[in-house]
Amino acid sequence: MLIPESARPQGTGNEPSVRYLLQRRFTARLLPQVRLLVEECAAREGLAEPRRGEFVLAVDEVASNAVEHAGGSGRLVLRRTDHELECLVIDSGPGFTEAVIPELLPGLDGAPTGRGLWMARLVADRLSITPGPADGAMVTLAVRLP
User: Fold this and answer.
1) What share of the chain is helix, strand, coil (3-state, %, to 5)?
2) What number of H helices and E strands is found in the chain?
3) pLDDT tens column, 95-129
4) How many CA atoms lie within 13 A of 118 on its CB side?
5) Which of 6, 35, 50, 62 is the most exposed, having the fewest neighbouring CB atoms within 10 Å of its CB?
C-alpha cells in the first residue's frame, strides 16, 4: 500500500523518528479486523488500559465515519513516533473540517450527528483534520505513550 505523501515524515532532521505499525485499506466488512489490529499494535507499543480501549474506540469511530460518509472505504495508517501512537484515517469523500465537530455532546446541543468525532477529539491528545492527499480528508489522532 502506498503511504500518502502527507503521511510520510518530512526530513528536516529535527522530527521524531517514525515507525509504521499498520497500513490497511478498509470497508465496513473489515472494520472488526482493523479494530483488532489497532488494539494489538497499541498493546505491543505499551499503551495500557483503559487508555488503549479509548484509543481503539476513537479510531473505530473515525474509520466508521469514513465508511458511512465518504464512499464506503478508507485507508488507515498507524505509526509510532518517539512519544505518541498516531493513527491517520484517509478517505476519498467530499472532505470536511473540524468545524463539523460539535462543542457539546451531540444531542445536548441539538446536533443529531457528530458523536464519533466529538468522542475522538475528547479522547485524543491530538486530533487534526486536513485535506486528503487526493480528495477527501485525513483525520489524524494521536495519544501520548508512557
Assistant:
1) 35, 25, 40
2) 3, 5
3) 887 777 766 665 655 555 667 888 999 999 999 99
4) 13
5) 50
